[in-house]
Write a structure and sequence with these properties.
Elements (H helix, E strand, L loop, with lengths): L4 E3 L2 H10 L4 H8 L3 H10 L1 E3 H11 L29 H36 L7
Antiparallel strand pairs: 1-2
């Protein structure tokens, strides 16, 4: 059987090893590998399937956790969520504009009515008005 090599995340191995306070030599002795092999794993990221399994077992992680994480193609791509109700944004904006106009018109009429009441009171009794 051929010795098949796989790409692994050498930085991840180093982080896990250092988190335990282990040297490369200590990890190598636990795995049954040479210290040079552990150095190559961390530096180059190439390992045989057996080496990957041995290191994963020694570090108590799944072998898949030592594989490199594939890069995200475009993390800034934003897609619009589907609108399940079928409500169009334009219709919402028109409705909002109409609501604002109705509130402004109502406020104008209330203000006008209050001003007319005050003017009528001042015309009837100028002593109550202090302008």
């Amino acid at each position: 059987m051929e010795d098949e090599t796989v790409k692994i995340d050498g930085k991840r191995i180093r982080q896990l090893r250092e988190a335990r306070g282990w040297s490369q030599e200590h990890l190598a002795s636990i795995c049954g590998l040479s210290a040079r092999t552990v150095q190559r794993l961390e530096a180059e990221g190439n390992a045989s399937l057996e080496s990957r399994m041995a290191v994963a077992a020694a570090l108590e992680v799944a072998a898949e956790d030592l594989l490199p994480i594939p890069p995200v193609s475009n993390p800034l791509t934003i897609t619009a969520a589907p609108n399940p109700a079928g409500i169009r944004t334009e219709n919402l904006m028109i409705g909002l504009a109409l609501l604002v106009m109705a509130l402004l018109y109502g406020g104008y009429n209330i203000g006008k009515d209050l001003a007319m009441r005050d003017n009528a009171r001042c015309a009837a009794s100028p002593t109550q008005c202090q302008r």
